[in-house]
What we know:
Blueprint: E1 3-4, E2 10-16, E3 30-37, E4 40-47, H1 51-72, H2 79-86, E5 88-90, H3 94-109, H4 119-125, H5 131-135, E6 143-145, E7 149-152, H6 165-179, E8 182-188, E9 192-195, E10 204-209, E11 215-221, E12 224-229, E13 234-235, E14 256-260, H7 263-273, H8 278-286, E15 292-296
Parallel strand pairs: 2-4
Antiparallel strand pairs: 1-13, 2-8, 3-4, 5-7, 6-7, 8-9, 9-12, 10-11, 12-14, 14-15
Helix pairs in contact: 1-6, 3-7, 6-7
Amino acid sequence: MTRINRRRFLTIAAASAALPAGVALAATETATWSGVALGAPAQMKIVGMTDAQAAPVFAQVAAELDRLEGIFSLYRDSELTALNRDGVLKAPSAEMLEVLAIADDLNRASGGAFDATVQPLWLAKGGQGNVDAAKALVGWDAVAFDADEVRFGTEGMALTLNGVAQGYVTDRVVMILKDAGLTDVLMDMGEVAALGHRADGAAWVAGVSTPAGEIVERVQLSDRALATSAPMATVLSGSDAHIFGPDGNEGAVALASVSAPTAAIADGLSTALCLMDAAAGAEMVAQFAGAKIEALS
């Protein structure tokens, strides 16, 4: 059984390029879309657009979210579930290869602490298998990928890309909004991404909160992303945290928050930091240009 405490609610607040300078956001028209994204309730708001003007943007974002779920989801028919089922994925999408490359970079930079092959162990810790047997199926070195195929070197292996894919999806949505001419965007998809500024010209401000909802840090963001990981935000069977290393052991970090130029990198680094000591974690983050530890406890 898995108990999920972490709030998962997609919120996008954006100002269109046509928003007059100096006009308060609350005084302008706001278009709103509500639906489901990544298996959770979702909401997007665009300030300075009518519903009719925003409809094409909303439709494009919704379509992209659905398309990316068809690649990375563990809960529907996707490239990832096909790979985990068959042990091989022929002709993987460019998006899958890009996320695997990021996971590879994170694995090397973290000294192996970040390992996307922990899915069998995650299931076993959740009561769906034997933990000792699952440990034998974990090992990033047994994953090979190129433009032709992704292949596991050990039968029974499986990937979870949750430590980076959600950030990657956030980045893709931000690109759509930027291409649509939206200049000032704040988006929360578990990872927070910001473009431009607030209506008053100040940077966006995002709070870093514990699983209990306590704000422990406030971070100014402009053209960058913020990700926060807390091992006990999701609790597996018993009292096991949902973030653990390839050996199944949990780290001593209760909360890690990282800002970076992309949400994918911020996402992966915050996850890996939960499994590393402070010195090793700082060395890892320093390998990614523009990344910064915002909170660590």
